[in-house]
Amino acid sequence: MRKLRKLLAFLALAAGVMAGQTSAGKAGAKPMDGGTTFLGNITGELSYIPNYDVMGGHENGGRGCAGCHSPHNGAKGNGGTQAGYGTYAVAQGGLWGQDTSAIMSSYTAGITFNGNSTRHSSRLTWGTAALNPMTAWSDRTYTGVATCLSCHDGAVSSGAMMSGISYEQMFGLLNGVGIGLNSNRNKSLSSTLYGNNSIPTFLGGSTGAGYNYQHPIGQNANLGAVLGAVLTNSGFGLVSGITGNKISITTLTPNSPYANFVATYIPSAVLATVPQSGNAADNFLVCTTCHNQHNMSVVKQVPAGATQVRTVFFVRGGYNPGAPFDPTHEPSTMRFCEQCHFAMSAEYYGAVNIGTAY
User: Is residue 5 in a domain?
Assistant: First the structure.
């Protein structure tokens, strides 16, 4: 009898939660590029105010912006010579202060990411043809990959303000503790959410596995590979196209699977993919598809009902490992992946009222 009473109490509580979510608990989601406004439910830190600099690890040990952008003469202004830095450094734009010549010369035909996987191997090539060093800065594969690797590659720039351990982990931010007088700064790695091992900041040679164990990026890591059924089947409710050299979600059919997903999580990474053609399925990933190098801790592109939400690892979207979730709210860490890997989402299977916990 006691077990029965507990079960009935649980069911009553669950019914109350669901009732709250299907009425006043909903918040209107932001329309996508003029599309329909949908309803959804969200919970967690919905007006997150960071208590540390949003640039985080990209403060570069106090050097700041000049750690990546040299305001006078780009890479040469950071101490390089034309002979030592090569034609890519001379031609690169954005006042980029790190040398990319070693990356470009070592991988003249591109880089293979996740090459040990027969299913997901992806070869990134520099542009659609052989990359011209004198026009490198106009190529999205160069600006979205090579510039990142000019610091985040232990084989090329091991001394470029890189600690080898994630900034967020080193400063205790993965437990939701900010930097301050009582932040437990530099706490032992064993007490973090990610176990005993350090989270490396390097890619490439310093890991021993090279690029073969990294998430695929490049021309073959495109939306068609993971969102193919959603992009080609109108039943999922997503109509997309290329507008202004970027993917745009022009229509979301009300109550369709993808619309129900977008109701509580804006697919900002999908919108940051790189187009190869007018076909949205050809849009592919680069480093800056998933990461915003200028903001480590907070995201403003969120559904209506939230001012801004927390993120870590410079992720381009809500991403909070400490978010309060329950059976009716998926953690934002899962939502971020599901915006491309939609077949893993509850909405793909027909759920209509699963919220997001930020």
Answer: no
